[in-house]
What does this fold into?
Amino acid sequence: MRTPARRALVFLIDGFDPDYVRATDLPNLMGLARAGAFTLDGQGVMPSLTNVNHASLLTGTFPDRHGLCANFYYDRPTGKEVFLDQAAFVEQPFLFERAKAAGWSTALATAKEKLTRLLRRDLDLCADMSSAPPEIAKVVGPPPDIFTLEINLWVLRMAREVALRHAPRFLYVATTDYPEHKLPPQSPEMKAHLREMDALIGDIVRCYDLSDSVVVLTADHGMNAKTRSVSPVRLLADAGIRARGVPLIKDGLFAHHRDLGGSLYLFLERPEGVRDAVRVLRGAPGLDVVIPQSEAGRYNLPTERVGDLVCFGQREWALGIWAEGPAVRDEAGLRSHGSVHEQTIPMLLAGCGVKGGARIEGGRIVDLAPTLCRLLGFTDGAFQGRVLEEVLV
It folds into this structure.
């Protein structure tokens, strides 16, 4: 019988499209990849957004089970718009809760306060831009502006101090994707930034003994340049159909993405007009997928929380909600995500119980929780992901 690992370190690098890995020499990350199991063809869940994929990683379930289907939600009965950034919205147990049930200490280090609000169940320590233990804040200094490259370096330095000073048995480290929203993989500035991140990741990993610890590194979504945008609301208005659009990427950080992403829910003023709306939108510029609520299960989405229509954009198109002016616009300097074209992510496991030099085949973000539970000796749950048996010793 395999001896369970005693500690776990999980990195979720926000917006870490596989092209960033291909474009830059990252010796610490690739050293872990050679020592463990790796792929650049992992799959996140849809929509390819931050909150949704954090929830899927930490619960091992799809949105139709854990309930989170966007960063942002329109509650039709009340007419209220709600940010989905509270732990109460997640209807399945997090890995933190499984760790606590096993008697482990747990910690989160992140830039985004919204992630602290979303994930804060059975966490002993949360360190973000507004809350860090005083002894750590003294060492790493005040947080930089979230709209800078420096923010992720600050998060990783903070995570290193958490690992050194508090030694939690389960540490979850989550960055922000402002750099990826602003800089493409081939940018010299981005390459330099990623090399700095790689060095700090190496420092954090060296706080662990891989003979008795497991390291996971993945992303929540990829990233693409979006050179044009389209408003399905405007297209429908031109056809005499009134609708409310919900930009699923909306999270209060407008400078990242301008509320323009690759996915959108539409709530029709007359829900019985779904067939006419689908007819108008299918084949319209910039739209890859237009399906009614009844077909949301194709993407493992909870039908009760999506709109009358679910829309996903084409690779170089963003979806917006303006109701005036032309339905199609040119965009400059916009990089974003949310569509199926940003669903591919890197996945890495290394350390105790993981085969060296293995390749993860057909891996999905929902497979990480059940695999970690197997490696850590936690009680199995009602996961929708599978244990990646083929990469385990």
Observations:
- The mean pLDDT is 94.
- The chain has two domains: 7-222+343-391, 225-335.
- Residues 7-222+343-391 form a domain with the Alkaline Phosphatase, subunit A fold (CATH 3.40.720.10).
